[in-house]
Amino acid sequence: MATRAARLPRLNDRKVEAQQQLITFEISGTGFLMPIEAVHRAIVFDHNCDPLRYINFERDILPVVSADQQILNRPEDNAPSAGQSSQQQIALIIEALSGSAADLEHRIVLPIDSPPSLCRMADSDLLPLPKTYEVKCVDGMTKTTADQPLQFLLNPNKLVESQANAQLSPQQLASLMTSEDMAIAEPLGF
Q1: pLDDT level of residue 80 (50, 70, 90 thresholds)
Q2: Beta-bridge partner residues of 152
Q3: Phi and psi dihedrals of 176, rounded to 5?
Q4: FRET label pair with 188: which of 4, 62, 111, 168, CA 20 to 30 Å apart?
């Protein structure tokens, strides 16, 4: 009969692999991951115009990332949709973790197509992105298995830097704050 003391050394012999806590979501049918430290908040807003450039969240005007252009390397579709009605859109407010992007002192909005969820992933499950992939702002990807589809790990600093030219002058900010076309976001309740 094995005693509790005899089983303890076997448990201590196992190596503990470092894991990251990530937020997972989809954009245009593609799975993405984002370090949880980079996500300030999940929000929801009514979306009724294309393309959406800025969102008012808690009296801050935040630039909106065009995922097609800035991440998926697709041309931006500027044609308005005929008869499009207002619909709710989920987004993440992303902030830089460190480095030169932190000096920009602003956050960006990343619209997503699915509700975000939390996951833990071992560092060994993430691979560097092959040079053949033509995506931007991505640092790596997951190993694909039968139970885990391919997902791309976004780099929050590169996303924030991609919107550096979206900085507005005080006059532009004042004009947007009074605009009735401005989308106003609210925190997403879980």
Answers
A1: very low
A2: 32, 141
A3: -70, -35
A4: 168
